[in-house]
Design brief:
3-methyladenine DNA Glycosylase, Chain A, DNA-binding, 5 helices, alpha+beta, about 220 residues, 8-stranded antiparallel beta sheet, globular
DNA sequence: AAACGGATTGGCT
DNA sequence: GCCAATCCGTTTC
C-alpha cells in the first residue's frame, strides 16, 4: 500500500474500504468480533490517523438494557441508532469523553458496536499531539475515550457516513483465530442489571492497547 | 425550569 | 485504589 500526495487516496482503497453491506449485517455480535483487526481511519484537514481495532463491545438494540435504544427509546440523541448500518454514533460521556460507535444492521434495528481500543498504525505523531503522550505508552489509544481522542473524533463526527472521506474502516487482511479473541462482560454497564453479565465485550488476547480489565 | 447521572480517564494518595 | 472533572441529554417537578 502506498500513501502519496497529501495522504489521500490510498492505493487499493476501493477494495479495502468496508462498504454499506458489511455494516448492514443483522448479527451485531458477529460484527463486534469481526471488526477486531480492521483498521479505523480518520482524515482531518488532510491529516490521516489510523489504528487497528483491538477491543469492541456489542450493543444489542431494543432488547439490551445497556443500550441507549433499550425498550425502543427514541430521543433526539438516539434516533441515529435506528438508521441503517454504516454511519457513526458519537456521544459525550461524563461530560469529558467522546465515545465512538458504529451503527449496524437494518433500518429500525438499533444495534451498535462501541470501539474501545485501537493499536496506533498511521499518524502516530499526530496522535501524540492529540493525547499529549508518546505512542510508546499504551494509554494513548486504550479505552473508548482515549481511542477516540487519538483519532481526533469528537461530536462533529456524529452521524458521519463510514464510507466517506472523513472516517472509514479498511480490511487489511488481519485475522484472528477464536483462541486469540477473548470474550467477556462489558465495562461500565452495571446499571444494565442482568444484561451487564452478557459476554459482549471482545478483545485481542495479549494486545497491550486493550483497556483494563484485560485478563482472560 | 431544575436536577440527575453516565458505554471514562488521569492524577494523587 | 480513590475520586474529581465536566457536559448535556433526559427525566422530573
Amino acid at each position: 500500500m502506498k500513501d502519496k500526495g497529501q495522504g489521500k487516496n490510498f492505493e487499493c482503497d476501493i477494495e479495502m474500504k468496508l462498504q454499506y453491506s458489511y455494516y448492514q449485517n443483522q448479527d451485531v455480535i458477529f460484527l463486534a468480533k469481526d471488526l477486531l483487526g480492521k483498521i479505523l481511519f480518520t482524515q482531518i484537514n488532510d491529516e490521516i490517523t489510523a489504528g487497528i481495532i483491538v477491543e469492541t463491545e456489542a450493543y444489542f438494540g431494543v432488547l439490551d438494557k445497556a443500550s441507549h435504544a433499550y425498550g425502543g427509546r427514541r430521543t433526539n440523541r438516539t434516533e441515529i441508532l435506528y438508521h441503517e448500518g454504516g454511519i457513526s454514533y458519537v456521544y459525550l460521556c461524563y461530560g469529558i469523553h467522546h465515545l465512538f460507535n458504529i451503527v449496524t444492521s437494518v433500518k429500525d434495528e438499533p444495534h451498535a458496536v462501541l470501539i474501545r481500543a485501537v493499536e496506533p498504525l498511521v499518524g502516530k505523531d499526530i496522535m501524540e499531539l492529540r493525547r499529549n503522550m508518546p505512542f510508546t505508552k499504551a494509554a494513548i489509544t486504550s479505552g473508548p475515550g482515549s481511542a477516540a481522542k487519538a483519532l481526533g473524533i469528537d461530536r462533529s463526527f456524529n452521524k458521519k457516513d463510514l464510507s466517506g472521506e472523513e472516517i472509514w474502516i479498511e480490511d487489511h487482511g488481519i485475522r484472528y483465530t477464536s483462541d486469540q479473541i477473548i470474550e467477556g462482560p462489558r465495562i461500565g454497564v452495571a446499571y444494565a442489571q442482568e444484561d451487564a453479565l452478557l459476554p459482549w465485550r471482545f478483545f485481542v488476547k495479549g494486545n497491550p492497547y486493550v483497556s483494563k480489565p484485560n485478563k482472560g
